[in-house]
């Protein structure tokens, strides 16, 4: 494999999906990049809002069947949901492409060395995180507080680049795109 996997991680409310959506649009015509659509055991968003992720919605049984069939290169569970990254990323990396995916910090230690992992840590100040999470309307105030209390530890020895998303979505997206372009060479 000559390409690489770029994992976009960060706390809830950091704006990962918003920045990824903008980066996907900006880099749509650049063949060096592939943006991954995750499978998630969550229904499709019923309302469109800033940062809504266009994921592949699967129920528990369909996800378990896909996992058993080897459909996922990476999979994990978080927040009571199952997440999967399609196995096809291996072919894209073999083509020399930069595969960009929204991953959980918990799955980073299981990424094979051949994927040449680079982690983009999207972050923002706590007050900004809380406001963004509340704006999604999916969690109670207690659930928001629990999310904000989770410590964001990353496994040691990873290639980590920080992307601060404390301004406008356009500013954060420009920072993310800049790092991605530098990684692609």
TrEMBL record:
GO terms for biological process: 5-phosphoribose 1-diphosphate biosynthetic process; organic phosphonate metabolic process. It is an enzyme of class 2 (transferase). Pathway: Metabolic intermediate biosynthesis; 5-phospho-alpha-D-ribose 1-diphosphate biosynthesis; 5-phospho-alpha-D-ribose 1-diphosphate from D-ribose 5-phosphate (route II): step 3/3. It catalyses: alpha-D-ribose 1,5-bisphosphate + ATP = 5-phospho-alpha-D-ribose 1-diphosphate + ADP. InterPro entries: GK/Ca_channel_bsu, Guanylate_kin-like_dom, P-loop_NTPase, PhnN. Its EC number is 2.7.4.23. Residues 3-181 form the Guanylate kinase-like domain. ATP binds at residues 10-17. NCBIfam families: phosphon_PhnN. Belongs to the ribose 1,5-bisphosphokinase family. Catalyzes the phosphorylation of ribose 1,5-bisphosphate to 5-phospho-D-ribosyl alpha-1-diphosphate (PRPP). PANTHER family: GUANYLATE KINASE-RELATED, RIBOSE 1,5-BISPHOSPHATE PHOSPHOKINASE PHNN. This is Ribose 1,5-bisphosphate phosphokinase PhnN. It comes from Teichococcus coralli.
């Amino acid at each position: 494999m000559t390409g690489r996997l770029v994992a976009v991680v960060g706390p809830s409310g950091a704006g990962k999906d918003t920045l990824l959506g903008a980066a996907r649009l900006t880099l749509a015509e650049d063949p060096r990049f592939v943006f991954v659509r995750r499978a998630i055991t969550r229904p499709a968003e019923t309302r469109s809002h800033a940062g809504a992720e266009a994921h592949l919605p699967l129920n528990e049984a369909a996800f378990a069947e896909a996992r058993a069939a080897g459909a996922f290169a990476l999979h994990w569970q978080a927040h009571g949901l199952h997440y999967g990254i399609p196995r096809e990323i291996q072919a894209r990396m073999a083509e020399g492409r930069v595969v960009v995916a929204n991953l959980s910090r918990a799955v980073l230690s299981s990424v094979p060395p051949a994927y040449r992992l680079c982690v983009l840590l999207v972050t923002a100040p706590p007050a900004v995180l809380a406001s963004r999470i509340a704006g999604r309307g999916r969690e109670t105030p207690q659930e928001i507080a629990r999310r904000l209390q989770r410590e964001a530890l990353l496994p040691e020895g990873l290639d980590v680049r920080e992307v601060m998303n404390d301004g406008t979505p356009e500013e954060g997206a420009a920072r993310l795109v800049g790092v991605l372009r530098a990684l692609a060479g």
